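Issue: ligand-bound run for 3,4-dihydroxybenzoic acid - logging full I/O for the record.

Environment: standard queue, default settings, no custom constraints.

Inputs:
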Amino acid sequence: MRTQVAIVGAGPAGLLLSHLLDRAGVESVIVETRSREYVEARIRAGILEQSTVDLLRDNGLGERLDREGDVHRGIYLQWPGERHHLDFTELVGRSVAVYGQTEVTKDLGRARDAAGQQIVYEVADTAVHDLETDAPFVTFTRDGETVRLDADVVVGCDGSFGPSRAAVPNPQTWERIYPYSWLGILADVAPSTDELIYAWHPDGFALHSMRSETVSRLYLQVPNGTDVADWSDDRIWSALSARFALDGWTLNAGPITEKSVLPMRSFVQQPMRHGRLFLAGDAAHIVPPTGAKGLNLAVADVALLAPALAALVRDEDSTLADTYSDDALRRVWRCTHFSWWMTTMLHTSTDPFDARLQLAQLRWVVSSEAAARELAENYAGLPIRF
Ligand code: DHB
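Outputs:
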């Protein structure tokens, strides 16, 4: 097989890249180890930054998002006895949309179907080759047969455990493993709040998010190594009720339809390019979930990469391709800092001094307009090139 851009990974980064390349007149083929059903059902965060919403809309992907997504003006920050609203629209003139990554992935899949995009699902043994030449290629097996996919460029959108990241020789890497995890649930119950609640509590952080008028998404800070089997539905609802407790407010409980434990880490690998291999999304960086930056960062990478690759393969102009890694990493590090900052401000440790610092910082964020604006600017998201 031959194409202009070989994309490894059919998650949101790979699908969006093929969509943007197609609009620029560049052909691509995507290979993916999982099945389409698995990729489309994979539950991830559900907050789209303003720039992500704008990009999806501008590229013909906003129709269902505009119909079913819910625009949120801000968030609530809470600690025992107090809940405060931060209004991003007032603070920075930007907002966010609540729309699950699963839905973004389905919309992208449908748009790719309509365009006749070639996506090869359920491949094995994917490997990338000859990256330092002008004729790189990808090999994989499918139904027991080995396939070779030749391309001008290979893009790794295959996450942190895929073969692309590992194919970059001697990268610089940075990692922080946090000493806690999240227990996430989906429940068939109307959200008990109009906008997300981020709650600091001595028992641990809790987050009330949502997916629709009838589906709530909630998270609890739990110790690393937690087994979901130890968390009955009753135990989950009572822990959530305790952490969100506020006079005159009640948390609606309902049937839990999904339960899982998420480890939390920060990771950055640079550069995001090696010869004719480019990395985008989780293949180059991981953020802890607090602040919901993962998908938005992947979208921003791809928004920079698509025009860079189009210029490279169509016009043999490497100017943007040569600055891609540095351009993307500037934003990656900004979001890495923001995600780390939100995480460390909100998750309880065993240190009572840390707790006092966190409470002082939370009070500062809701009482100083400058501090509130800083959170709002980062949460609602920076322009793609900031
Ligand atoms: C969600 C996840 C997050 O990490 C976050 O900060 C906000 C929302 C979510 O899954 O809805």
